[in-house]
Amino acid sequence: MTEAHTLDVEKVTLGYGDRVVVDSLDLRLPPGRITAIVGANACGKSTLLRAMSRLLAPRDGRVVLDGKDLHRLPTKEVARTLGLLPQSPIAPEGIVVSDLVSRGRHPHQRVLTRWGAQDDEAVHRALELTGTLSLADRPVDELSGGQRQRVWIAMTLAQQPDILMLDEPTTFLDVSHQVEVLDLLVDLNRERGTTVLMVLHDLNMAARYADHLIAMTGGTIHAQGSSADVLTVDTVRTVFGMNCMVIDDPVSGKPLVIPIGRHDAPAGVSAAAAVQVS
């Protein structure tokens, strides 16, 4: 099992240039759980993730890892605890899959320590878990978008972080591979106790796979808690500006959000009225 860590956001303000994206936000990441952040485009989800992984320094406030200011800790110490898969990673030209995944072991390498069997095992396991073992000798730039995404996830898994952060990890994946990747994250959480924080666009995938849901709008947290508490008709309307019905997912028992468009309501009934009926 992984070591339990605390990661807190305290009155953090974030932005780019003159633009404030996240304003005085507080957040405590539930240790040993799977947390998903949802929200409309440009609401601050990815910006918050960047700050929590030390890629973006707060303008005000601080991110605290195990009681210490994250942005003042040594880089390798942070990398042994936190792993991040950003939204659009770029691989060095010509690099093959096995070499890219091996780079996930960099935080565990020391000046007087050579690459060892433990590193080989971590890389092999990461390739195996993501279904990319057969791609090990292929150049990354020859892969499809979905294959490439799974390889990046493998690199992050090879790092063996105790806290794993992923920004839209199911991007470019077809539905079957989306389920495989999210199932894998559940396995890591249950078997190793890995704390997982991910940004997802698909509300129903977030509801099904996350223990804790955070809904953001306008750079603030509008609601957080279980999927049943967060994914309500009112919250979806406020956060996404979308009418919907929310029913029980017949497979998971979690909330299932069904969007209602202007042409979806029964004849003679407005979309707003249809929501009220639900």
Automatic annotation (TrEMBL):
Lineage: Bacteria, Bacillati, Actinomycetota, Actinomycetes, Micromonosporales
Annotated source species: Actinoplanes hulinensis
Subcellular location(s) of the protein: Cell membrane
Protein name listed in UniProt: ABC transporter ATP-binding protein
PROSITE patterns: ABC_TRANSPORTER_1 (PS00211), ABC_TRANSPORTER_2 (PS50893)
Topology relative to the membrane: Peripheral membrane protein
SMART domains xrefs: AAA
Entry GO MF terms: ATP binding
SUPFAM superfamilies linked to this entry: P-loop containing nucleoside triphosphate hydrolases
